[in-house]
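Worked problem 6 (solution included).
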Amino acid sequence: MSNSGCDTPDSTPTPSDTAWFKGQRWSHRMLVFSDQNPGALDQRTILADREPELLDRDLLVIEVGEEQTTLLTGESAGLPGATAFRTHFGLPTERFEVVLVGKDGGVKERREVPMKPEELFSIIDAMPMRLDEMRRTQD
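Solution. The predicted structure is:
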């Protein structure tokens, strides 16, 4: 499901932006990437047919544009705008970057090249919370 956010010209996150980020903790992981240069198209393309695996890992995939954000995988209401994501995760405006965020809200991986699904899943599946989730589904 796709969900576009909006943006404000001010770089200070609004209370609703802050609440959104806090609301994702412990329920979602995030893969956030900037739409600068062809890296964004590459990232979208290599993840396009992997939605079931992304959802299985509670992963929101979010593309941060110049002015707005787009939720590519997952569901979340009230997605903050581009400025909030750039400020919160320190995303550059002039180049591509992809950031993997754990359920604890911490940045787990940051790259300047698109992340392949196998690399992404390997990193996530080694996280303690994910190991716990996989054990619980096997029981």
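Discussion: The first strand starts at residue 3 and ends at 4.
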